[in-house]
UniProtKB/TrEMBL annotation, chains A, B:
It catalyses: RX + glutathione = an S-substituted glutathione + a halide anion + H(+). The keyword ATP-binding does not apply. Keywords: Detoxification, Transferase. GO terms for molecular function: glutathione transferase activity. Signal peptide: none annotated. The keyword Transferase applies. PANTHER family: GLUTATHIONE S-TRANSFERASE T1-RELATED (PTHR44750). It comes from the Eukaryota. Residues 89-225 form the GST C-terminal domain. Residues 1-82 form the GST N-terminal domain. This is glutathione transferase. Belongs to the GST superfamily. Theta family. It comes from Lupinus luteus (European yellow lupine). Its EC number is 2.5.1.18.
Length: 247, 247
């Protein structure tokens, strides 16, 4: 039964699912739905996900969206996925659910608001400084919770584990989105969280070479934006055109 | 092995867990942690949940927080919970996870922002009208999604089901929090969504008499606030004192 992933590698939860499937040797067809080209708003994609959000999957005739539910479904439906990704033990599984639930209104919420508002000038959108500050507050508080609560324990992964779970992938891919900030802002926000930085490296190593391969488009965007941050005399329009036409 | 629920019946996810346990005949000890008395910030409760949020549970030596993960854990760990609450079928379970994941940044997010800002004057807090409007926008959009997408299908429950799941309980308890609004605002927001109103009634009926018993504290608060909304010459301070001392 064919597994189709509707994804955009510039979307953090899309990347988590791609890396998970590749790291577990699961065959799939990658169907690119480019957000910058507004392809997620097309009637074709709306037939897959009526909420018009990425990622989504189709497995045979079964359609599903929301990245955490997709990760859990794939980990459960495909034989051969190592138990540490989504343990069968009820208490271990419950703790992973707890991190995933926490993620939505904390790390995800903070990162999305902060990035949207920090990049607004680059994207030719109106800047809301109050919203950017609020986003940064939630983001920094979330990073502090990861550093001081979720990464407590002996192992290098969330919940003190010695091997990664779907929660590590989801949260690390969220934080990786900060790569597209200018270096100064990224260091200011992430720099104080040494365990977080080490955990990102551990997750990258545990899923190599897929981690960097799937993030490659983001790294390219980082280089492109890095040039734009430094350029003199740039206009918002130029960058917006560049982003929407070339990515 | 004893199950302890750390809850406040004025908290919507606390109520979902209480109703779930009562409807399934699960024995538990209810430990009240009163948010208005800031008991969730005490060192005793921090030892249960380092994030200082309600609800939380302790089952034997196992501690857990985040209401969706708690509902899933209890449904899985206690024999005798009917399958419809959290089906073993992978695709049905995945769809329930999808609704629960969606909930956080949509219905929950909108309802919490809207209520916090609408009730700010009553609670003696500064009113942010822009935030209240933004909250209402997210809340109304979420109700529309429930009406037009999640409640599509033949059955009266989410995903077209004929029996309720943990997702029905979680989302209905969230919407029930709107009871404490004044009647005009509540009708304006909820009135257009006929299927949603019918679904709340179906969920209430499926879990009676526990639904109303657990919501009783909220109904009392509604009556109290209703008097305050109508009273002339009330001061913010009066209501705040009333809320913090008597509820």
């Amino acid at each position: 039964m064919e597994l189709k992933l509707y994804v955009d590698r510039l979307s953090q939860p899309s990347r988590a699912i791609l890396i998970f499937c590749k790291a577990n040797g699961i065959d799939f067809q990658e169907i690119k739905v480019e957000i910058f080209k507004r392809q997620h708003l097309s009637p074709e994609f709306q037939a897959i996900n009526p909420l018009q959000k990425l990622p989504a999957i189709v497995h045979g005739s079964f359609k599903l969206f929301e990245s955490h539910s997709i990760l859990i479904y794939i980990a459960s439906a495909f034989p051969g996925v190592a138990n540490h990704w989504y343990p069968t033990d009820l208490t271990k599984r419950a703790k992973i659910h707890s991190v995933l639930d926490w993620h939505h209104l904390n790390l995800r919420h903070g990162a999305v608001i902060y990035l949207r508002n920090s990049l607004a000038p680059v994207l030719g959108l109106p800047l809301n400084q109050e919203a950017a500050a609020e986003g940064e507050k939630i983001l920094v508080s979330s990073l502090s919770t990861i550093e001081n609560i979720w990464l407590q324990g002996n192992g290098p992964y969330l919940l003190g584990s010695f091997q990664p779970s779907i929660a590590d992938l989801s949260l690390v891919c969220e934080i990786m989105q900060l790569e597209i900030l200018n270096e100064k802002d990224r260091d200011r926000i992430l720099g104080p969280y040494k365990k977080v930085l080490q955990w990102i490296e551990s997750t990258r190593n545990a899923t190599k070479p897929h981690f960097d391969e799937v993030h490659n488009l983001l790294y390219k965007l980082k280089v492109k934006l890095s040039g734009q941050y430094q350029a003199d005399g740039m206009t918002e329009l130029k960058i917006q055109t560049s982003l929407t036409s070339k990515i």
